[in-house]
């Protein structure tokens, strides 16, 4: 009768009907935050005026803003730690590891719901958890109230058969899927995996595949919970938390795709999108300057050991800088005990701490015009910290082989490709975790350093909006375009005024000036506007700069919710060709906005004539827009008590 996704949605259903496209309210068992979005989450939680959380488990990780070149990042860490103490959260100290990897090892559970303020939260789908990435405010509400709203997605079933050849990684599987479906192919879907090929994939392989479901635009991805899951949980000392979960034979799927794992080959995503799939054989000799291995996609113990086997007794090419960041302190500890760390160091690799690091441009920016090959999940322009760098994505095995060869090389060009045997038991690095104190011993205040500034809150929507089109952008605008995040800017995630100077700066140099000169305005985009990160900063910066509506051909899921949460109208062209009639600099008017929100039909008066727009809002979303965003909505209803 039911897919895994629908079983879990049904088990957690609080309001609404499980009918595709309908908004439902579900119970949330767990939340996670990381530091780059977390400061805003805890500022919002503070604004909700609660004293304890409603989830079974909430964890606050520090893994993104790890460079401490000034007081800003450590101040943010301290604020988050103090919020964790005040509200009764588990706090994972800097050095403990990347949130998704640590969560998979120590906390994620089959059958549980998880909402996280990071778009790669679906990584936990690898263990059979229904794990969804969301904007910070949604996560704050989930913590405060224990619930989350979502539109019931369609289900895409990917049936796996066969087994991956040695030297081919789960990363090659998801790159293959991305090549076929593109970065917007998963929008509106949960991707559910099944078939006899599933049992040949470890939980961390499954997690790699679920992780990059975010790049498909999917709401989440999920695998069954089976004997492989049980063995994983036993190795992590959590076998009592195992529950089996399978789809029933007559499960309904909206779309089905078949993939034979034995046909998957070592591959890359070429610059600058994760769907730019190419088999390595088709590339010719692409010289690499930098190779980076790690990230929440590919930093498991097994991935690290595959890398160590390839590096053993070999030397990193003299023109290549190889950097490796193991995903968690638990893994780093295991690698140091079994000698793999020494192998990596002897090969000439630079070993970094367990954190996001170069994935988010937190150090290791490539040199000008460099080619950098990374085992990460995103290769958006500028994300590495170097605007003209060319980033390729590949598996850890391909990365290691390429670091030796000096060009993008298939792992089969080198020997050392063994199956990896996992330890029977992982020794968790629990000393990085701080567990909450009993309620009456918790502090009543958080600690805020001078970098933490108040965040903007929207006004109720105006009935007439007459504004200029400040920017007309193309397809697939990323949240890295709207709110760039490099080592220089990440320290200002809790300082919106400062961050707003860089709004849209990968696209234009003067967005803030344009917005100030025109007292706010409208932004126009193409398809899949706001893809990528869950950062609500990509809505907060436009809000702060007076942007009242974004008009696009289509929106990425999390960003669309973030815009509504911040009281900004996300409107879609009824006829996508009308995009061509709008020019940057046009003065436009939206009248009868309130009635249009109700009906879902908007008319935008433009110099080229009237353009029809659609705003397909749920009843709750309409109220949020009328009332000036989710925070006002929540406060108005005391919904969190
Ligand atoms: C990312 O991979 O883009 C990030 C950085 O982890 C973001 C979160 C953020 O912007 O802080 C994400 O994926 O949501
Ligand atoms: Fe961190 Fe990169 Fe994963 Fe985002 S994608 S959570 S920056 S490792």
Keyphrases for this structure?
7-stranded mixed beta barrel, binds iron/sulfur cluster, binds alpha-methylisocitric acid, 6-stranded mixed β-sheet, alpha/beta, 641 residues, 19% strand, 20 helices
What this model shows, in words?
This protein has 641 residues and is of the alpha/beta class. 28% of the residues lie in helices and 19% in strands. Strand 4 (57-61), helix 3 and strand 5 form a beta-alpha-beta unit. The radius of gyration is 23 Å and the shape is globular. The model has no long low-confidence stretch (mean pLDDT 96). The structure holds alpha-methylisocitric acid (MIC) and iron/sulfur cluster. Iron/sulfur cluster is lined by residues 64, 98, 118, 120, 295-296, 356, 359-360, 376-377.
In short:
With about 650 residues, the protein is α/β, with parallel strands linked by helices. Strand 9 (about 155-160), helix 6 and strand 10 form a beta-alpha-beta unit.
Secondary-structure topology with pairs:
Blueprint: H1 4-11, E1 13-15, E2 23-27, E3 30-33, H2 35-48, E4 57-61, H3 72-87, E5 90-92, H4 99-106, E6 113-116, E7 130-133, H5 136-145, E8 147-151, E9 154-161, H6 170-181, E10 189-194, H7 203-211, E11 220-222, H8 227-235, E12 255-260, E13 267-269, E14 277-279, E15 290-293, H9 301-311, E16 321-324, H10 329-338, H11 340-347, E17 350-351, E18 371-374, E19 390-393, H12 396-405, E20 433-434, E21 465-472, H13 479-482, H14 496-499, H15 511-517, E22 521-524, H16 537-544, E23 547-552, H17 557-565, E24 569-573, E25 587-590, H18 593-599, E26 601-606, E27 609-614, H19 619-627, H20 630-637
Parallel strand pairs: 3-4, 3-6, 4-5, 6-7, 9-10, 9-12, 10-11, 15-16, 15-18, 16-17, 18-19, 21-22, 22-23, 23-24
Antiparallel strand pairs: 1-2, 2-8, 5-20, 13-14, 21-25, 24-27, 25-26, 26-27
Helix pairs in contact: 2-3, 2-5, 6-7, 9-11, 9-12, 19-20
Bound molecules: alpha-methylisocitric acid and iron/sulfur cluster (SF4).
């Amino acid at each position: 009768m039911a897919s895994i996704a629908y079983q879990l949605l049904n088990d957690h259903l609080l309001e609404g009907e499980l009918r595709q496209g309908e908004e439902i309210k579900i119970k949330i068992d767990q939340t996670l935050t990381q530091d780059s979005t977390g400061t805003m989450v805890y500022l919002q939680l503070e604004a909700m005026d609660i004293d304890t959380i409603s989830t079974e488990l909430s964890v606050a990780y520090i893994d993104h803003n790890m460079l401490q070149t000034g007081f800003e990042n450590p101040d943010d860490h301290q604020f988050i730690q103090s919020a964790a103490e005040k509200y009764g959260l588990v706090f994972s100290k800097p050095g403990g590891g990347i949130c998704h990897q640590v969560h998979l090892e120590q906390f994620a559970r089959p059958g549980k719901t998880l909402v996280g303020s990071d778009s790669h939260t679906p990584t936990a789908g690898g263990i059979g958890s229904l794990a969804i990435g969301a904007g910070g405010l949604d996560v704050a509400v989930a913590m405060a109230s224990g619930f989350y709203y979502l539109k019931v997605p369609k289900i895409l079933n990917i049936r796996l058969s066969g087994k991956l050849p040695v030297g081919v990684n789960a990363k090659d599987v998801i790159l293959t899927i991305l090549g076929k479906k593109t970065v917007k192919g998963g929008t509106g879907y949960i991707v559910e995996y099944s078939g006899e090929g599933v049992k040949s994939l470890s939980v961390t392989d499954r997690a790699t595949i679920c992780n990059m479901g975010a790049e498909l635009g999917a709401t989440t991805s999920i695998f069954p919970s089976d004997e492989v899951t049980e063995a994983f949980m036993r190795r992590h000392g959590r076998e009592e938390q195992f529950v089996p979960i399978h789809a029933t034979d007559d499960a309904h799927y909206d779309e089905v795709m078949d993939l034979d794992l034995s046909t998957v080959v070592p591959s890359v995503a070429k610059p600058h999108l994760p769907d730019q799939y190419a088999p390595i054989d088709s590339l010719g000799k692409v010289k690499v300057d930098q190779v980076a291995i790690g990230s929440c996609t590919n930093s498991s113990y097994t991935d690290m050991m595959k890398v160590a086997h390839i590096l053993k007794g070999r030397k990193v090419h003299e023109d290549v800088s190889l950097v490796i960041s193991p995903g968690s302190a638990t893994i780093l500890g295991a690698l140091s005990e079994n000698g793999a760390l020494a192998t990596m160091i002897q090969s000439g690799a630079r070993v970094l701490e367990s954190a996001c690091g170069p994935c988010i441009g937190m150090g290791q920016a490539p040199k000008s015009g460099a080619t950098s090959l990374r085992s990460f999940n995103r290769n958006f322009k500028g994300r590495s910290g170097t605007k003209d760098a060319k980033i390729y994505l590949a598996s850890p095995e391909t990365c290691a082989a390429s670091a030796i060869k000096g060009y993008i090389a298939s792992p089969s060009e080198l020997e050392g490709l063994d199956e990896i045997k996992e330890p029977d038991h992982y020794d968790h690095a629990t000393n990085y975790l701080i567990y909450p104190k009993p309620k009456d011993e918790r502090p009543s205040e958080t600690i805020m350093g001078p970098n933490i500034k108040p965040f903007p809150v929207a006004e109720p929507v105006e009935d007439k909006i007459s504004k200029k089109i400040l920017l007309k952008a193309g397809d697939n605008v990323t949240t890295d375009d709207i709110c760039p995040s490099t080592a220089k800017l990440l320290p200002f995630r809790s300082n919106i005024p400062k961050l707003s100077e860089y709004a849209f700066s990968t696209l234009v140099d003067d967005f803030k000036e344009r917005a100030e000169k025109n007292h706010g305005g409208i932004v126009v985009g193409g398809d899949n506007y706001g893809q990528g990160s869950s950062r609500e900063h990509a809505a907060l910066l436009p809000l702060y700069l007076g942007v009242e509506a974004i008009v696009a051909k289509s929106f990425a899921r999390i960003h669309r919710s973030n815009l509504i949460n911040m009281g900004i109208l996300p409107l879609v062209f009824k006829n996508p060709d009308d995009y061509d009639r709008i020019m940057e600099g046009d003065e436009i008017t939206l009248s009868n906005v309130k009635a249009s929100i109700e009906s879902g039909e908007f008319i935008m008066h433009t110099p080229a004539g009237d353009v029809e727009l659609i705003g397909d809002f749920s009843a709750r979303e309409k109220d949020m827009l009328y009332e000036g965003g989710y925070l006002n909505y929540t406060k108005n209803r005391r919904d969190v008590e």
